[in-house]
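Pair request: fold both.
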Amino acid sequence: MPKFFYIARDKTGNKVTGVEEAANQDDTITRLQAKNLIVISVIPEAGEGGRVSITPDRVMKQRVTLKHNRITGTELTLFCRQLATLLGAGVTILKSLDIITQQVASKRLYQVIKDLEKSMEAGLSFHEAIGKHPKVFSELWINLVESGEASGNLAMVLSRLAGYLERDAAFKKKIVSALIYPAILMCAGLSALLFMTIRIIPTFAEIFKGFNIQLPFLTQVLLNISFFIRHFGFVMIIVLAVGFWFLRKYISTKTGKKNFQSLLLKLPIFGEFFRTLCVERFTSEMSTLVESGVPILYSMEIAERSVNNLVLAEVIHKIKEDVREGKPLGQSLEKSNFFDPMVVQMINIGEEIGELSNMFKRLNTFYQEYLENFFTRFTSMFEPIMLIFMGGIIGIMVIGLFLPIFEISQIGGK
């Protein structure tokens, strides 16, 4: 009877390796699961020297052409969903990764998955393997996978992670779609103003030179602005580009990023929007973590490392320390002065009735709807405001250009 080398985890999360005699790989998996082991990989063992070899039937040909090098959010979400589905169907994780490599279109993702296979065949767990690729897999990925491996519910945890990634991608898509029209309208308006400033106003300036009249103040201002843009516009672009570069360099530092994010949160009107965006991100991650069975303190720690806002990260850190000291989560949230009273009340209720993950999920749904409504109102208001603004500016230009013509016509009439 052939022998199979296996790598597995027991219920406490400890790694277990060994050799099992069985008719085939599926029979090996069944025997290991009967021993309450979580199977990571099963590999046929060579006859000589007891060394592991990978048989040809484990190597599958690539059926999808690798089209690009980047890894998109959609591809990473699909990878998570496919892996969750295959593991849920009882397929081993290594076999699942082999199957997925046949379907990826990203050359980089293909290489990453192949590296995951090699790492796990060398004895690493799945969370240790993905931890070698921090630019691809976030802290949320790594910690959720680790909790899934330890609890023996990796398929379920990956399914919830895939759901989180899908909801997050759909939400971002709605936000981008809502901003496309205002961006197009603004670009068109600014292009029209620039065309009038560079082409139309200089034409009128040449006409006015032929008349010996004192130009009105508004007309002179328009001519000066046109002259400045035409002769110093390139210098302005260079200055703005250099300023933007230095701003990006400053924001890339921890202090600069924190100061910039703090400034965004203090902006009138939009400051509330950015704060709500932070709360939405926090509730989304917490609902996924708590629902996946991650302890509340560990969830707070993961959320602190995962959120992309240093101000919120500091708030979460203080809340985590209060909870570590035994204080209720709702009370710690209220003490932070960052969260709305509704968040505090719902978390208090969730703690009392043991439905904390459900409360986080409801809060996340509420804030997503709030942000979507905000963008809907913003785009509906932006169009008339932009049209009025552009109409006002163009009207001022037209008046400024025609005032001298009126004076010339009056002089000619005399």
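--- second member of the pair ---
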Amino acid sequence: MSAYRERIADRMLAARLRRKGAVLVEGPKWCGKTTTAEQQAASILYMADPMRKQQNIQAAKINVQQLLTGKTPRLIDEWQIAPSLWDSVRFEVDHRGGWGHFILTGSSVPPSADEIFHSGTGRFAKLKMRTMSLFESGDSTGTVSLAELFSAEKEAVSGSSHIDINRLAYLICRGGWPGALDLNEIDALAQAFDYYDVVCDSDISRVDNVQRDPQRVRLLLRSYARHQGTMATIGTILEDLKSNESSSLSDNTVYDYIKALKKIFVVEDMPAWNPNLRSKTAIRTSDNHYFIDPSIAAAALGASPDDLLNDLETMGLMFETLAVRDLRVYADALDGQVYHYRDKKGLECDAVVHLRNGSYGLVEIKLGGDNLIDEGAKALTSLAADIDTTRMKSPSFMMILTGVGDFPYLRDDGVLVVPIGCLKD
């Protein structure tokens, strides 16, 4: 077994344990939730242990204290197998006092309100884990810090990236799955396809015990992959599905399938940003569609690294999903969120990293090339010029995040150009 790789989530978990009685760690299967939680747990209960699963479920009903007893922080892995544990942990936190008693991990969103009676406000902190960013996997040199872009002089950016177009295509298809990092390339690339198959054949139905058609899931994920980074409507996705099957479908069916995929953290849409503008331009508020990891999109399309290299337009879409994943990981560490911007005039910004203190940075995501970089810079400066800085802050930075490039630099127009192989939190 390979040595544990430090994650950005490690320090985020430690911080939450210092200020809350319990921490809920959630995210897709196989992203490293349990392993990360194990590093800080003093005792562990594996609810899904096949030898004890039924016993654990029964204990949660009649003798829950038995499950909660142990050195703290106590990790309860896959807690949602017995949803009543949530209220029991909340009650225990109330009566123990102090901080850092429990870590709960799960690979689906918490059950509905009919199974949980208390929200856990004030007792629980949430930590959403994702697949590994390029910095965490060792593929980014980390010479450009997103945190420093919010505070440091932009002229100081420096460093180098070791990611060329061939390596980038591989990283998109491999994804950020921790278990794939130490495998040879053939086996590493197979992991995303294995994950995709399990999602379609099993996980999407097991999340809420509603049987769903695996072939229909495959068609839906393929459509989602074709429309990633866009605001495609349910109707557009429905038309894609109808063109591939003769059975009757409805908007509600598509919505139900997408909702289930969100519950197991396969897809994660991006909300729209709503700045104060000088103009009266109407802002489009629909979410943009993204996968939690670009490798799932590649698997849905059956795409290999060579396929992407032969279709740079599709590769550009896939790279955008990878870039959004990394920005989300880094923004989470800064207590920030990532949004998109698009208005009725067609002006857009691929990503807006917005922090709790009101600071924000504007980001355009481009595969590379002078023409695309120029287009991105024009969009960023146009948007920045339209923001009403009497009612909100000026952007802390404007950045073109590129897939390829040897080093970061600052353009004369004030726009940073940063290869993703240089970026970290």
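Observation on the second member. Residues 144-424 form one domain.
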